[in-house]
Amino acid sequence: MNESQIIDRYFELATRADSEPYFALFAPDAVVEDEGREHHGIDAIRRWRTEVPQVRYDVLSTVESGPGRTTTAQISGDFPGSPVNLSYWFEFTQDGRIAVLRIRV
């Protein structure tokens, strides 16, 4: 898969209950930053995902920026301030997995 396909797959799988294909997108030592907190490695990313509410993702744009890609997505669901646009910064490993994901308002 190329980087654009990985990003598309990320948003597709993020809404599903079966999370194993979702976690397979990440490198074993991946870092996810969300709400100012960093989660290092698959086990920490699994714990983080249990805290993320069920939401809908509507991808608005994806652009290359430096060593990665920035995707803007509108997130809607049962949470205060819904809907909200968030920025997702993706960096990838050479073998095509997510190495870094930074989610920001």
UniProtKB/TrEMBL annotation:
<dbReference type="InterPro" id="IPR037401">
    <property type="entry name" value="SnoaL-like"/>
</dbReference>
<feature type="domain" description="SnoaL-like">
    <location>
        <begin position="8"/>
        <end position="99"/>
    </location>
</feature>
<dbReference type="Pfam" id="PF12680">
    <property type="entry name" value="SnoaL_2"/>
</dbReference>
<protein>
    <submittedName>
        <fullName>Nuclear transport factor 2 family protein</fullName>
    </submittedName>
</protein>
<dbReference type="InterPro" id="IPR032710">
    <property type="entry name" value="NTF2-like_dom_sf"/>
</dbReference>
